[in-house]
Amino acid sequence: MSKKRVLGRGLDDLLAQHDQDLPFLDAYGPSIGDSEGLPPGTGTDTVEQLMEAIARLLQSEGHQDTELLSKEAKSNGVQITVLSGGDKLPLVPSDLGAPGFEEGKLAADRSEATVTIVQWGIPARRLLERLCEHWSG
Q1: What is the pTM of this model?
Q2: What confidence category does residue 107 fall into, taking pLDDT thresholds of 50, 70 and 90?
Q3: What is residue 125's predicted lDDT score, i.e. its pLDDT?
Q4: Among 129, 102, 115, which Cα is nearest to 44's?
């Protein structure tokens, strides 16, 4: 006698459970950059949101008025240009190709880098924090 294989619960069941079991998540509101039909965190942030996030992080690190970083609003994000300030930048080309970045370029002597931040996230925050640490050192 063969047993009929029964599949687990379907997506609709899981979503219904989510709505019942986790209603407190609605209090946090939608994530910044969420787009209709895309998973959370895969949308693009507006240029204004990106500029504000960059400014907040630089201010918190004590580098809001640095001549070593310039920001320019572009149609797809915020282009930043960073200068080493003496020592070589603590970057490699792959740092400028992380998710959320476009058009990353690192000078051969690592004295200057340019990248367009199109989405705020861990890679963008980590890049700016590393630069601030470099300038403070």
Answers
A1: 0.65
A2: very high
A3: 92
A4: 102
